[in-house]
Structure to design on (706 residues):
């Protein structure tokens, strides 16, 4: 069995030939999916590790879910979650089940139609690499199967994982009941490695498809998805910076989900200011390295889902005199396995001097273990400078280059987590608004004739729903757009597109997470007291999504990164490139009479961004002004970038509407676009005025008066 709980032999000791065969199976699946045609395989849950179920012609037509089938073990596990006698069920959950307060299945529905629309109608026509050779039907099958898996298998784990949390027993972390089985089912189906390269055991599909699957998994169970997300970021960094033996013996088991990965930066006395790090790595006479120090707040620092954990650790290297400098010049990134790995054979050995000294008791994401790790003379392997374009944001060490590489990936992942939580909260709120009755519609023609109408008829309820929906669907488009910018294959465009994608990376992390927390609170506000109690789900989402504004670089740091690093980069060409893309959309969409006002508003907003960027450049003489204005500037860029997406979406919707099979879907997009331009974009003018006030009023009060 793959990834069995608490059995390292089952997890890490699989026969190499079997693993190689499994990787070949996955490669065959992805090739056939891209080729299409009669009898193509469905990428999804199958009958065993690495296998896929083939559905041909008439079978696909007869299948209720078009080829979707949860494997028997996962299906049995899913139903057990609603059996009060099952070991996974806590007393609180058992009480809810007995009172029929937990629905089967959960209310999560993955946005498959939205992704197909964005990939093939909005973004794909301008970026063919977004879908590669996959047809719309191929992608639909992949996404429908992924949706079915995460809706049925992972979503029920979210509440129970929050209730149980993680435990530290005898120096080892125990995850909530069901997590190991959920992780194993995901790995067997291949959902953890949809966009990982085929050479390492992944399906090799475009990363936009992988991003859709990652949103589904995070929406279903954010805590469980964190383990996979961090592992994917870690093995991506190793692929770009690791030695040959790491590519051969470390990356494949991470891609397959048998090993996990982490990122270890923060220490008890320092977080953002990495110059203060005390963790050291010292070279030995035999050419090896030994690393010692303490790292805190390490997500997934230990768990019982996999047979080994590969830690990527930032440490300082003493100079030839044994001194550790108080700067970043001697920082390097090291690979430190929990269990020793033989570089020649890949065989696992003894514990490698990495121990868990504690786990945090947190507000949310309780199923994700946040650990304090002690490294005591652990064998470490240095990684090289990242080969990822734009990975190094400043002149420093090779270690910082690799760290920025992984951090940027984590920041985009955090934005996707934030989007996922907002989407789940909106689902709860929208369902409640349709079903809850209170008062009557203000317009008699909208009344149902009953004693009370559903609260969705009330304008303020609609304000809360539209505010959430317009952010979520616009942000989803923006996240996909950023992904395609960073993955641009055309060498003549690549540098420009990566610069724009890098400019928008802190926006995706910070603005998405700010709005996610706001959305979760809006969902709770709409539901009133029913949103405040535990069993309705929104209370957990409010707690869970608060961390997204804090980790992977607090949002204030993201705003400074945007203003101090990303704006000046490439002599300001990244911002100029972003504005040019937005204004091109405005020019093209403005040819339609129905969108002319929206196009004019977008041009006015991009003009305000240019004006504020020029002010920030001229104000650089005052060291405080950048810090005083950075948050408002980042928010402004987020609002305008989302407006850019909504204008592209609206232009596409109007083009498709005359022959649309589902005109209601497109009409909804047009209504949300109108909301964004009439209710959200006007705030840009006020934000611009705030940016240009600088930091004078913020710094006027003496420090001792706070």
């Amino acid at each position: 069995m793959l990834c069995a709980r608490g059995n390292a032999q089952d997890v890490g000791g699989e026969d190499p030939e079997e693993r190689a065969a499994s990787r070949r199976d996955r490669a065959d699946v992805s090739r056939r999916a891209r080729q299409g045609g009669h009898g193509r395989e469905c990428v999804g849950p199958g009958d065993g590790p690495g296998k896929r179920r083939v559905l041909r012609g008439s079978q696909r037509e007869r299948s209720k879910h078009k080829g979707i089938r949860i494997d028997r073990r996962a299906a049995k596990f899913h139903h057990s979650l609603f059996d009060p006698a099952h070991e996974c069920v806590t007393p609180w959950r058992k009480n809810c089940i007995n009172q029929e307060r937990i629905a089967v299945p959960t209310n999560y529905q993955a946005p498959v139609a939205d992704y197909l629309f964005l990939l093939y109608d909005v973004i794909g026509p301008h970026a063919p690499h977004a879908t590669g050779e996959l047809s719309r039907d191929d992608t639909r099958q992949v996404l429908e199967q992924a949706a079915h898996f995460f809706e049925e298998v992972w979503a029920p784990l979210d509440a129970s994982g929050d209730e149980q949390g993680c435990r530290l027993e005898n120096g080892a972390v125990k995850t909530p009941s069901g997590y190991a089985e959920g992780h194993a089912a995901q790995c067997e189906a291949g959902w953890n490695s949809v966009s990982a390269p085929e050479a390492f055991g992944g399906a090799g599909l475009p990363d936009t498809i992988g991003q859709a699957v990652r949103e589904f998994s995070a929406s279903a169970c954010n805590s469980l998805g964190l383990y996979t997300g961090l592992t994917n970021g870690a093995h991506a960094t190793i692929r770009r910076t690791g030695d040959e033996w790491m590519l051969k013996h470390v990356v494949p088991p991470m891609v397959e989900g048998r090993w996990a990965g982490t990122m270890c930066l923060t220490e008890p006395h320092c977080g953002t200011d990495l110059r203060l790090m005390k963790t050291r790595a010292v070279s030995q006479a035999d050419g090896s390295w030994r690393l010692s120090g303490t790292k805190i707040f390490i997500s997934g620092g230990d768990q019982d889902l996999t047979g080994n954990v590969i830690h990527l650790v930032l440490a300082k290297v003493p100079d030839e005199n044994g001194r550790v400098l108080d700067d970043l010049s001697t920082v390097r990134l090291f690979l430190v396995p929990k269990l020793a790995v033989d570089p020649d054979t890949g065989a696992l050995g003894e514990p490698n001097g990495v121990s868990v000294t504690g786990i945090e008791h947190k507000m949310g994401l309780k199923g994700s273990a946040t650990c304090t790790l002690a490294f005591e003379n652990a064998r470490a392997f240095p990684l090289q400078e990242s080969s990822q374009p734009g990975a190094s944001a400043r002149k420093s060490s090779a270690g910082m280059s690799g760290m920025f590489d992984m951090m940027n990936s984590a920041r985009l992942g955090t934005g996707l987590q934030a989007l996922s939580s907002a989407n789940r909260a909106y689902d709860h709120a929208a369902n409640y608004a349709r079903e809850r009755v209170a008062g009557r519609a203000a317009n008699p023609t909208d009344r149902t004739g009953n004693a009370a109408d559903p609260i969705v008829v009330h304008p303020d309820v609609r304000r809360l729903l539209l505010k959430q929906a317009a952010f979520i669907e616009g942000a989803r488009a923006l996240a996909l757009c950023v992904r395609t910018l960073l993955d641009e294959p055309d060498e003549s465009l690549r540098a420009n597109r990566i610069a724009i994608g890098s400019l928008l990376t802190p926006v995706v992390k910070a603005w998405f997470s700010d709005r996610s927390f706001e959305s979760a609170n809006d969902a709770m506000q709409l539901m009133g007291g029913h949103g405040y109690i535990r069993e309705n789900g929104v209370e957990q989402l409010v707690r869970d999504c608060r961390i997204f504004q804090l980790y992977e670089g607090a949002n204030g740091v993201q705003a400074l990164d945007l203003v101090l690093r990303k704006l000046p980069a490439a002599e300001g060409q990244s911002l100029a490139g972003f504005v040019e893309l937005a204004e091109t959309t405005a020019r093209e969409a403005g040819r339609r009479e129905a969108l002319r006002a929206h196009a004019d508003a977008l041009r006015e907003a991009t003009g305000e961004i240019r004006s504020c960027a020029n002010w920030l450049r001229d104000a650089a003489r005052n060291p405080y002004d950048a810090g005083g204005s950075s948050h408002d500037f980042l928010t402004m860029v987020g609002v305008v970038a989302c407006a850019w997406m909504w204008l592209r979406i609206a232009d596409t919707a109007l083009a498709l509407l005359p022959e649309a099979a589902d005109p209601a879907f497109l009409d909804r997009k047009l209504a949300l676009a109108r909301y964004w331009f009439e209710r959200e974009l006007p705030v840009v003018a006020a934000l611009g005025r705030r940016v240009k006030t600088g930091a004078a009023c913020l710094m006027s009060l003496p420090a001792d008066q706070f």
